[in-house]
């Protein structure tokens, strides 16, 4: 017959084991965002893509060398350069005379009439301070951390942003932007990925603009990257 431990002794062993094996606390929002920034600044790619909204198709070329990302559009020609630095991103307009800071008053403009703005390309929200982890949720069978971030100033088109970040890879799987009234105005979501040269890249992302004050989709733009 198995001998049972006296209750006080058994309880003390359980408490001792709990002290020796504490559950790992979840990462902070800033730790998660650091992993996102690290992933973004390590990419190497040279691919074609397009923004597509209904009958509007806007082709572009994307070239990334670590923290430096260049988007090239044609008809008319337009070259944007995004530099992901330690303290924040910088979006430049590249001309024959060199690179100059993109005009702040034009950041909220839509790119060629699609649902993507120049500010969306700048990825400023991954540098916002503070923030909190709301828990974890599954997006397309991927376990993700859900974060809430608040804009540090009023120069953002979003007052609050919710992010879903893949726990294993640090990839952004979904983003929702809310205005100052707490209304959902735009949603980005990864639809599919692809493997190129033994590395995983975005294949298609859906961008939904919402009708003000409702959760109804007003327009959909698809960002696609080609092999």
Features:
mainly beta, outer membrane lipoprotein receptor (LolB), chain A, 13 strands, 48% strand, globular
Please characterize this protein's 3D structure.
This protein is mainly beta and 227 residues long. It has one domain (26-226): Clam (outer membrane lipoprotein receptor (LolB), chain A), CATH 2.50.20. It is 14% helix and 48% strand. It is built from three helices and 13 strands, in the order H-H-E-E-E-E-E-E-H-E-E-E-E-E-E-E. The protein has helices at 7-20, 29-40, 118-122, and strands spanning 44-53, 56-65, 68-73, 78-84, 89-95, 98-101, 132-139, 142-150, 160-166, 172-178, 184-196, 199-210, 217-226. It has a 13-stranded antiparallel beta sheet with strand order 6-5-4-3-2-1-13-12-11-10-9-8-7, with helices on one face. Strand 4 (78-84) and strand 5 (89-95) form a beta hairpin. The longest helix is centred in the first third of the chain and has 14 residues, at 7-20. The N and C termini lie far apart (67 Å). Residues 1-21 have low confidence and may be disordered.
Helix-strand blueprint:
Layout: H1 7-20, H2 29-40, E1 44-53, E2 56-65, E3 68-73, E4 78-84, E5 89-95, E6 98-101, H3 118-122, E7 132-139, E8 142-150, E9 160-166, E10 172-178, E11 184-196, E12 199-210, E13 217-226
Antiparallel strand pairs: 1-2, 1-13, 2-3, 3-4, 4-5, 5-6, 7-8, 8-9, 9-10, 10-11, 11-12, 12-13
